[in-house]
Amino acid sequence: AGGPWLLGEQLTLADLSIYPHMERLAVLREYRGIELPAECGRLREWLSAMQERESVKATLHDDAYHIAAYAHYADATANGTTAAVMRL
User: Does the first or last residue of the chain, that is N or C, have fewer Cβ atoms within 10 Å of its Cβ?
Assistant: First the structure.
C-alpha cells in the first residue's frame, strides 16, 4: 500500500490498534534480545510516522517506562493468569 499508514494514505483503526503493541518493542529487546529486523524498513517507516503524530506524542511512554512495567514478568515474580501463561 502506498502512503505512510498500514493500509495506505489514510490512518485507520488498524494503525491505532497495532501501534500500542509496537510501542513495547523495547521490552522484547531488553528481556528477550529480539530486535526488529533491518529488513522491516516499511514497518520502521510506519513506526516513525506514528511517533510523529501529536496524538501519539501526547500519550507516548518511553522505553524505560515499558521495560520497568514488564520487569515482574521478565523476572517471573508476577502473579495472575497472564503471568502464569507467559512462564510456560
Answer: C
Torsional class of 85: left (φ above 0), alpha (ψ -120 to 50), beta (otherwise):
alpha
Indicate whether 54 belongs to any domain: yes
Residue 3 lies in a domain: no
Identify the pLDDT of residue 1.
67
SS3 7: coil
Rounded to whole angstroms, the Cα distance separating 44 from 69 reads 24
Cell triple for residue 35? 530486535
Domain of 79? 13-86
Model confidence pLDDT, tens digit, residues 20-74 = 999 999 999 999 999 999 999 999 999 999 999 999 999 999 999 999 999 998 8
Provide the whole-model pTM. Answer: 0.82
